[in-house]
Design a protein that fits this description.
Layout (H helix, E strand, L loop, with lengths): L1 E3 L8 E2 L19 E2 L8 E3 L3 H11 L2
Antiparallel strand pairs: 1-4, 2-3
């Protein structure tokens, strides 16, 4: 199952370069957009399913 990327809001691009820290508000760059590193520019991420989360929890308890 897929869901919209929470970082780029499904757009696939972001305005902040990947090398700029998250709390930094200003930077100098000659580009205006960058591919989202979370979804690799697709706008979608694989959402965990409830069954896979339960299986992972069971595997950790073994």
């Amino acid at each position: 199952m897929y869901q919209k990327c929470p970082i780029c809001d499904g757009q696939g691009i972001v305005s902040k370069p990947p090398y700029v820290a998250g709390d930094q508000n200003t930077w100098v760059s000659d580009r205006t957009s960058y591919p989202c590193k979370t979804c690799n520019g697709t706008g979608l991420i694989v959402a965990p399913t409830p069954n896979s989360e339960a299986k992972e929890a069971n595997n950790e308890n073994i």
